[in-house]
Design brief:
The chain is α/β, with parallel strands linked by helices and 268 residues long. It contains eleven helices and ten strands.
Length: 268
Amino acid sequence: MTLIDASGTRHAPAGDGARIVSLVPSITELLIDLGLAGQLVGRTRFCVHPAAVVGDIPALGGTKKVNLRRLRALAPSHVILNIDENTAKMAAAIADVVPHVVVTHPLVPDDNPALYRLMGGLFGREAEAERLCAAYGAARDRLAARAFPPRRALYLIWRDPWMTVSRDTYVSATLALVNWATLGHDPAVRYPHIAITRALLADCDLILFSSEPYAFTRDHIDAFAAAHDCAGARLLPIDGEMTSWYGSRAIRGLDYLGAFAADLMSAA
């Protein structure tokens, strides 16, 4: 198996002796679902799933800033990073003290099977990875078998300032699977700041308030509705983990999104 990560680095299989630090929450969950909990020696404080397992794995900081002294003391053989979630400065610092840095960057949901196989191939869990690939394929087929009307969606991920997702993001590609086109695209910025204008709102069928990275609540949605004329749009909370987490959660995410979109059709 050829194991090449998103940076173009070729890796050799590590097998059962690997000591792994994952600095990507969704990949921490994926590694555990591959049966690698016993080899995970570090994570970020945002690696929260599955809760019953991650509590026993040391937290080394956030996705943007890690405690390098603690990381070095754990003597990992491999650190898993992501281009969007971790910084290039962090990656360079880690590469100075860890033998193997594995870089990931899924851009669309259908990148998940390759991610499963990369992690499975690296750490001796090929059969488990293939089971996840089959489960992903079945969920993808279930979603593809359904027809959804086109909708224009403003997907909000932050406030003060307001931020959304451009079309070249994993979230936007996920929503496209149910025929939803995201608004607010900026070709120069993947997660742009936006102004909430009358013209933008008039173009919206849906305004989606994600549960992460900003934890929007019903109070936020009600305040937004009171401050803006959104008469032509539905304002709804959406589970950001189900739309933005790749890895094993993406399998459930496809079923979640299909049910979410179907409920909207039923309510129309």
